[in-house]
Amino acid sequence: MGFEEIIGQDLIIRALKRSLSSGQTTHAYLFSGPDGSGKKSLAFLFAQALNCSSELDPPCKSCLSCRKTLSGIHPDFYQLFPEGASIKIGQLRELKESLYYFPREGRKKVCLIHGADLMTLPAANSLLQILEEPPADLVFILLSSRPWALLPTVVSRSLHFALKPLSPEEMELLLKRQSLLEPQEREIVIALAGGNPGKALELSSKGGLKKSLEEVLLLLESLENESLDNIFIKAEELSGKENLQEVINLLLIIYRNRLLFELGVRPEIKLIKDKLQYNNINVEEKILFPGGENINYLERMCRHLLDLQGELLNNINKRLAVEVLFLQMRGAV
Ligand SMILES: [Zn+2]
Fold first, then answer.
1. C-alpha angle with apex 326: 324 to 330, nearest 5 degrees?
2. Terminal alpha carbon distance of the chain
3. 104 C-alpha vs ligand 1 centroid, how far in Å?
């Protein structure tokens, strides 16, 4: 399977295939979309296709060239990664030295720039210089989750493809293909992941997902109604559990979705079934998008959960941290 393994980006794939079959590739492609949207998978397939030995519907993914590209050892395939927080001019200079020779094994020299928006201004200008007089056989593929942070001149010299969020049906197809979730778990993952395939696969790869989800959903339900004493007992229970980090991650996703919902960003997703029930809880109304919550409160919760995610990696008093979290979730502090 080549480009077919990418779900939900048919227009982009059609355009890429068209330029491949006509042999009319441009010198810079920009793939943008949030982390997990599939930019990197798409870029690797395109990079493989540019030098694939198979005539038929490249990339074949099995010829030597495809395999070398995929493992990053093809002599005509270059990758730039941010070093620390940025991609620096020195990295571009070094790259430039090798770009003006003919391809050694393939038809094209392909250069994949990860986190292209992290190029410093001098680095971006150096890229522009190359793009002003590019060698005929050179193709840049830029990846960015923040395309607005790129130099407009870099964007305008690139063919920009923005990956779109997947529909619930596309997400279901992806999860059916790549995970072993039960139908109900699948629906909850689809709702939580908000059209982001990477996030959905990450969520579904966790073994104890069903258990953690059940815990989180019941927790959200009960925090509203139970007495403070019971909340402290629940905090103690959760803080001793092995899946604490996962519960926090799920809570963060849920609060982020709620915040986006209140900010007017209606989820791109629509649940496949009208009412998603889980242990008799209407997940959509009560848990994911309850509606009418205070934006400041939701922002505070997201920030707090993010902090807690980091703190849990250190040696903190987990019980105390979870108690504070629960009180905040109740809006008590
Ligand atoms: Zn191939």
1. 115
2. 53
3. 16
How many helical (H) and strand (E) elements, i.e. helices and strands, does the chain have?
14, 7
User: What are the phi and psi torsion angles at 248 (to 5°)?
Assistant: -65, -40
C-alpha 148, offset from chain centre: 17
Amino acid at 22: S
CA 61 – ligand 1 centroid, Å? 5
Gap from CA of 25 to ligand 1 centroid (Å): 17
Per-residue pLDDT of 89-124, as tens digits, reads: 999 999 998 888 888 999 999 999 999 999 999 999
CA–CA separation, 183 and 169 (whole Å): 13
CA distances from 103 to 82, 108, 139 (A): 25, 6, 11
Give residue for tokens 């982009």: 12
For residue 20, the CA-to-ligand 1 centroid distance in Å is 13
Peptide bond preceding 59: is omega within 30 degrees of 0, i.e. cis?
yes
pTM given for the model: 0.78
Q: How far is the CA of 133 from the centre of ligand 1 (A)?
A: 29
Enumerate domains of the chain plus CATH numbers.
Answer: 3-162 (3.40.50.300), 168-329 (no CATH)
Tell how far the Cα of 63 is from the centroid of ligand 1, in angstroms. Answer: 4
Sign of the Cα pseudo-torsion (235, 240, 245, 246, in order): negative
Q: Which residues contact 185 (CB under 8 A, 6 or more apart)?
A: 204, 209, 210, 213
Q: Which of 237, 196, 224, 245 is nearest to 290 (CA)?
A: 224
- Residue 13 phi/psi, 5-degree rounding, is -65, -40
Q: What is the pLDDT of residue 202?
A: 87
DSSP, collapsed to helix, strand or coil, labels residue 292 as coil
Distance 50 CA to ligand 1 centre (A): 9
Q: What is the pLDDT of residue 291?
A: 78
Name the stretches of the chain with pLDDT < 70: 207, 266-281, 284, 332-333
